[in-house]
Structure formats: structure tokens, C-alpha cells
Design goal:
This protein is of the alpha/beta class. Helices cover 33% and strands 24% of the residues. Bound molecules: D-malate. D-malate binds next to helix 3. The site of D-malate has 9 residues, from helix 3.
């Protein structure tokens, strides 16, 4: 396997005008996890769903962490570029249009990292339960980038301040961010896909 390749699932579009959703699973997930969600969020869009290459006690992730919420920054940076290269190359070889990431937890964190250090790869992102993955030395130019961030009011892993810091970092970089607080914890509730479906229909159809 090429270094920039990932085990992945690809479902071509039946609506070629729709953006491609890049689905990024949480810790312990795989390329199959978010496919039903992606189909629900933007019916007919092409779906590209890679599997994270890092294993934590057998559980796939997109980058290494030293402890819960404490990231291995050099690994995060290298893996962010590797994933962005994969998405950029896939986009070119399949002649895809706009790319929107949909990530949950660890997948949302690497999507946020891509926005911050590879700002041209994504046109936007749905970040379910994301935190600040890293603070770049210089702010990226995220004008024309749109982000939906959904955070749980009682998330034991991500406090209110952390989620708010991410929103502010993205906004300071020029992104248009809708931050929705969802009554709940770290796991998704039915309100998350509802909010994402509505947001995608408004911003990306
Ligand atoms: C992470 O490691 O990305 C976050 O702690 C979320 C998680 O995967 O549990």
C-alpha cells in the first residue's frame, strides 16, 4: 500500500452536483461506521470513508494520543498531512468537486486539524464532538469555509470552554461556524444528524 493510501470505502455519487463527504470515524471505529450516517446526511452524495491507521490497543484512530485528550502533536501533524494528501489525490483522480468532512470525536479532531493546517483540502466540515486539536503557529485562511460544530452540554471529555475555544479559533481564521449545543454527552443523539442534515442542505446543496 502506498504511504498516502488508506484502507477505505468509496461510494460514488448518484447526484454529481453534491459535495463529497469524507467520513472520519471515532476511536475504535472503521470505514463502515459512518456510511449509513453519510447516506442519511446528504442522499446521493459520494462518500469517501478511510480507516484511521493508528492502533490503540487494537482500536483504529487517526493519530496517536498520549492520554485522553492529550495528543502526540508531531504524530497529529504528520497524520493530518497524510490524510489531506490522500483526500487531495483521491479528489484529483476521481474528478470530485467540493469536499466536506464529517467527523465524530477522534475523526472530528483530525478534520479540525486539516482545516487548521491544510486549509485548502476541505470546503467545510461537520464536527461532531470536536476539541482543539492543535493551535497553528499562524492562523490559516478559512474564509469561504463553513463549519458545523455540535457539542454535548454534558460531554465528560470536552468541556464547554474547550468547544468554545475551537469555535473561536476557527472563526478567528475566517471560517463561518454554526455551533450547536446538544443536550447530551459525548455520544451522538438524534439531534446531531438532524442538525447536520439541515445545515448541509442549507450550505452545500
Ligand atoms: C481523541 O483522542 O481524539 C479524543 O480524545 C476523542 C476520542 O477519540 O476519544
Amino acid at each position: 500500500m502506498d504511504k498516502s493510501d488508506f484502507i477505505h470505502k468509496y461510494i460514488p455519487a448518484t447526484r454529481p452536483d453534491a459535495p463529497t463527504l469524507v467520513l472520519l470515524h471515532g476511536t475504535g471505529g472503521n470505514e463502515d461506521d459512518l456510511v449509513p450516517l453519510g447516506q442519511q446526511l446528504l442522499p446521493g452524495a459520494s462518500l469517501l470513508s478511510p480507516r484511521g491507521k493508528v492502533l490503540e490497543q487494537g482500536m483504529p484512530r487517526f493519530f496517536r494520543r498520549l492520554a485522553e485528550g492529550v495528543f502526540d502533536l508531531p504524530d497529529l501533524i504528520a497524520r493530518t498531512h497524510e490524510l489531506a494528501d490522500f483526500v487531495d489525490e483521491f479528489k484529483a483522480s476521481h474528478q470530485l468537486g467540493r469536499i466536506v468532512a464529517v467527523g465524530f470525536s477522534n475523526g472530528a479532531n483530525i478534520a479540525a486539524s486539516m482545516l487548521l493546517i491544510r486549509p485548502t483540502t476541505l470546503a467545510g466540515a461537520v464536527l461532531f464532538r470536536a476539541m482543539v486539536p492543535l493551535v497553528p503557529d499562524a492562523l490559516p485562511d478559512l474564509r469561504n469555509r463553513r463549519v458545523l460544530l455540535t457539542s454535548g452540554t454534558h460531554d465528560p471529555l470536552i468541556g464547554r470552554e474547550e468547544a468554545t475555544n475551537l469555535r473561536q479559533l476557527l472563526e478567528r481564521s475566517g471560517a463561518t461556524v454554526l455551533h450547536r449545543w446538544i443536550e447530551g454527552g459525548h455520544q451522538l443523539t438524534p439531534e446531531d444528524p438532524q442538525a447536520a442534515r439541515q445545515w448541509l442542505a442549507t450550505e452545500f446543496s
